[in-house]
Amino acid sequence: MSLVLVVSKTCPHCIRVVLTLNHLKIPYELKYIDMENTPDWFIKASPLEKVPILFVGDTILFESLVIIDYINTLVPSSLLPNDNLQRALNRARAEFSQEIIEILWSLFSAKTLETFNLYMKEMRQLFSQLEIWLQQTKFISDNILTLADFAYAPIFTILPALKQFIQFDIFDGFPRLREYVDNLHALPQLQMSLVENYDLLIQKKIQSREPYFLKQ
């Protein structure tokens, strides 16, 4: 059955699906759309008018974590644990990544020192939870890569793209998280899952929001 994945170029939710497909070596067709000028066919196809969506033949899947969960079923060797409880825990920790995405982008879009500090405080609270989990295992819920790690891998690609502009250490006090992110960025399929001009696109997107941190 053919797979057609519809994405935008800088969306971390989209990149996690592309990464999972590439890692599992599953054939697919990729279609990019401009979310500021969405075509009529996409509006009709996507229930939430968001990317990514995956066409599985005539069936349309939406929500990135649901999509990667389905993709995982297409290969004989699952990226989820065999134990039912551990499988549920893996999915729960993957869901936690949604909070990280929201706060991280809010942090780098904050227009005032007050809102920047507020989001930084929230980010550090989330990082504290990740640090606790990573004290127990090398990856987010095991000592080997699991599906949850593919949910996290694209989140922090924004940081290298903005490295020249960032005057603070976002991982200060979180050594295990820093190591984890380095391990994710070392995944050979991650860079090939990003568009060629990804860093530039991220920079333009963030700069257009005129955030506080760029004024420092």
TrEMBL record:
Domain GST N-terminal: 1-79
Tree of life domain: Eukaryota
InterPro entries per record: Glutathione-S-Trfase_C-like, Glutathione_S-Trfase, Glutathione_S-Trfase_N, GST_C, GST_Omega/HSP26
Pfam families with a match to the protein in the record: GST_C, GST_N_2
Domain GST C-terminal: 83-212
Gene Ontology annotations for the cellular component aspect, listed alphabetically: cytoplasm
Cross-referenced PANTHER family: GLUTATHIONE S-TRANSFERASE OMEGA (PTHR43968:SF6), PTHR43968
Name the UniProt record assigns to this protein: Glutathione S-transferase
Organism: Paramecium pentaurelia
